[in-house]
Amino acid sequence: MQANQAHIAPFHLAIPVDDLAKARAFYGDLLGCEQGRSDSQWIDWNFFGHQLVTHVAPERILPPARNAVDGHAVPVPHFGVVLDMPTWQALADTLKAAGIDFVIEPHIRFAGKPGEQATMFFYDPAGNALEFKAFADIGNLFAV
């Protein structure tokens, strides 16, 4: 089943964390995600229009593997969102100013090819890998 391009349904993703205070500082304060419902063991976040839930489950936190993509060692698994280019650049600037230790620095991947995109990778405090990307032409999101 393919998503309707005019309306993309929000996804729901639950991830393990080891410290809700650190998750709150990272997702709420740094990334600017609005906090939703919460309890002593989890927090719902409005993650750029999607529902992300951070659950305390330190035993589920594993180091990611790596996969070669365009000359970089990309952490797998990872998650994130596709932003418009100005929002992506503003986030990259915010993260740089905050001193985030990037796994892969903000850059343009596949330059001059179908699927050219701005991308960056970094970890949250629990070690979950995130990728944020943007396309000058969103029509190239699935270009081959």
TrEMBL record:
Domain VOC per the UniProt entry, residue ranges: 9-135
Spans through the membrane: none
Protein name as annotated: Glyoxalase
Residues in the signal sequence: none
InterPro entries: Glyas_Bleomycin-R_OHBP_Dase (IPR029068), Glyas_Fos-R_dOase_dom (IPR004360), VOC_core (IPR037523)
